[in-house]
Design brief:
about 550 residues, alpha+beta, five-stranded antiparallel sheet, about 40% helix
Length: about 550
């Protein structure tokens, strides 16, 4: 790929981005890419967002081994062409954005660079896979050679620290399933890592007030790395023998305090785990370089389906990506909002809205000019003192500030109101998926409840007197392309309800694949306007169809 030598995406005959198959360490090679100074852009994209997004290609969750690399064998779905992927995130207080990317000299990397919280992918020609847990995509060999323009719809998180804390309070006391890989620390037989992490945490916390919540702890860590305590250097780790990422590298980095994005991301991820916050490392690209160019949407046949859905005349700003944007950053799990990124590397990217970089307070300096005495007549008791221009201006400024603050508050409340229903739907869905993955006597009921909610949100609800078989056969008749998936779901549910042959853990991946395909096809049948309405106001949120349906099944009605 242009701009890279032998790094994360080396050029060659074979698709070079296939990191796992080639047994290449993505974090080691990210450093090589940065040091190669490759400035030749290989990717161009345009986005409706005010800020260029980070682009993710891989996620590393296991931080206990000698080499930190993406996990294989995670649950994924196989897709073909355009797909509305199943989002595994909260869309509370987000703006919906579109990004259109192209590879001017062709794409050689099967790992598709996508913004965080992507939910609709358009333009892939061929087969590809979507890993649900990490929200990452990989193109097949045929798709890699045939695909050159991709459009993506994504939710750009725009939430304040106060809203994050509010969401956290909403779910306080609720159990959230997080895999052990996201919380485990490396083995530490001599306790040197544990001691160093504890000492560093205390040092980070001393820079401000003692943090109470997970968000405050995460912000304290981010500020600690960006506040001048550490120096960004791509050469020092290589020269002094602590390049890459593992526990020994993190110890050396925290002692030497010089490194690049891999070291900052790795250290913050381990410190977060020590502080009790689940963490992982995202690998990809920092925001691109603005080109100063832009495109506006039109209704021409050349426009993609996504950009065509935007209002005519919408502006998309242009950016380029080269090897100099290769980047790694930590993602932390915060209750109520899910996985969110942070930016500890000084001088790279930007800090998120929920963890803004602190501004240094500027105090007004005292004037050194000598005081000039003035004479002022004292008004008589019969005279009413008139307002001075300064007082009037001050009052006007105060009124303006109040009006701006109230307007911002109203906007925030409106956004929060619009996002509450999607957030509640997402939480209910995630709880059901966790029960299905567990494989027990409750899994079939959770599967049935989610199917009922999917149908209700897609405006094809189950009838009051319809059984499992009646409803799913009706859906299959109306959607012949879903016959295989619906038959699989019907068999699993009925075997559990009527024969006590419950869903097993090994059955869950296939059932979830079928469930996801049903949801995708039912969602795609809706016109764009109704699709948006079904997302903002899901009908299933204010209904409990699963409980009613379970009673009917048990009573034989």
């Amino acid at each position: 790929m242009p701009g890279f030598r032998t790094g994360m995406f080396p050029e060659g005959q074979r698709p070079s981005g296939d990191l796992l198959a080639n047994n290449v360490d993505p974090l080691i090679n990210l450093g090589r890419d940065l040091r190669s100074n490759g400035s030749d852009p290989f990717l161009t994209y345009y986005t409706t967002a005010d800020q260029a997004p980070y682009l993710r290609t891989q996620v590393i969750r296991n931080l206990t081994g000698e080499r930190w690399e993406p996990s294989e064998g995670l649950f994924h779905s196989d897709y073909y062409g355009d797909v509305a992927v199943n989002n595994n995130f909260s869309t509370f207080s987000s703006t919906e954005e579109v990004l259109q990317m192209t590879w001017p000299k062709g794409n050689r990397n099967p790992l598709l660079p996508l913004p965080d919280r992507s939910y609709l992918v358009n333009g892939i020609v061929g087969d590809w896979t979507w890993t649900h847990e990490t929200s990452t995509a990989r193109l097949s060999g045929d798709a890699l050679s045939a695909t050159n323009d991709v459009s993506v719809a994504y939710s750009q998180l725009n939430v304040t620290p106060q809203v994050v804390e509010y969401l956290n309070q909403l779910v306080e006391g609720q159990d959230t399933f997080i895999a052990d890989d996201y919380t485990q620390l490396p083995q530490d037989p001599d306790n040197t890592l544990q001691s160093l992490l504890d000492e560093t945490l205390q040092e980070a916390y001393k820079q401000g007030s003692s943090p109470r919540t997970d968000l405050e702890k995460a912000v304290a860590l981010q500020d600690f790395f960006r506040s001048g305590n550490f120096v960004y250097s791509e050469r020092t780790p290589l020269r002094e023998g602590y390049d890459g990422a593992n526990a020994e590298v993190v110890k050396a980095f925290l002692a030497r305090r010089q490194g690049y994005c891999v070291h900052f991301a790795s250290a913050m991820a381990l410190l977060a785990r020590e502080a009790g916050i689940p963490s992982r490392i995202a690998v990809g690209y920092a925001p691109g370089v603005a080109t100063g160019e832009s495109i506006t949407t039109d209704s021409s046949e050349a426009a993609s389906a996504l950009t065509n859905s935007l209002e005519t005349g919408t502006e998309l700003k242009g950016y380029t990506v080269s090897g100099q944007q290769a980047h790694a950053w930590p993602e932390l799990y915060l209750d109520g909002i899910g996985w969110v990124p942070f930016e500890p590397t000084p001088g790279r990217g930007y800090t998120p809205t929920y963890a803004p970089e602190p501004t240094r307070a500027v105090t007004e300096q005292e004037s050194t000019a000598p005081e000039v005495p003035t004479t002022r007549s004292t008004p008589s008791s019969s005279e009413s003192p008139s307002e001075t221009p300064q007082a009037t201006a001050g009052t006007q400024s105060s009124d303006d500030s109040t009006a701006i603050w109230l307007a911002q508050l109203i906007i925030l409340l409106v956004i929060a109101g619009l996002c509450i229903a999607p957030w509640r739907r997402h939480r209910a869905r995630q709880k059901r998926l966790e029960v299905i993955r567990a494989g027990n006597q409750e899994s079939a009921q959770a599967l049935w409840n989610e199917l009922l909610s999917v149908g209700m949100d897609a405006s094809v609800p189950c009838g009051v007197h319809e059984s499992v078989g009646d409803y799913l056969v009706r859906l299959a008749d109306d959607h012949p392309g879903l016959t295989k998936e619906l038959s699989m779901l019907q068999r699993a549910i009925e075997l559990s309800f009527y024969a006590s042959h419950h869903v097993q853990e090994q059955d869950a991946p296939g059932l979830l694949d079928a469930l996801h395909e049903v949801q995708n096809q039912l969602r795609r049948q809706l016109p764009l306007g109704r699709r948006i309405l079904s997302f903002l106001f899901p009908k299933s949120v204010n209904s409990a169809p699963g409980d009613r349906r379970k009673v009917q099944q048990s009573t034989g009605k």
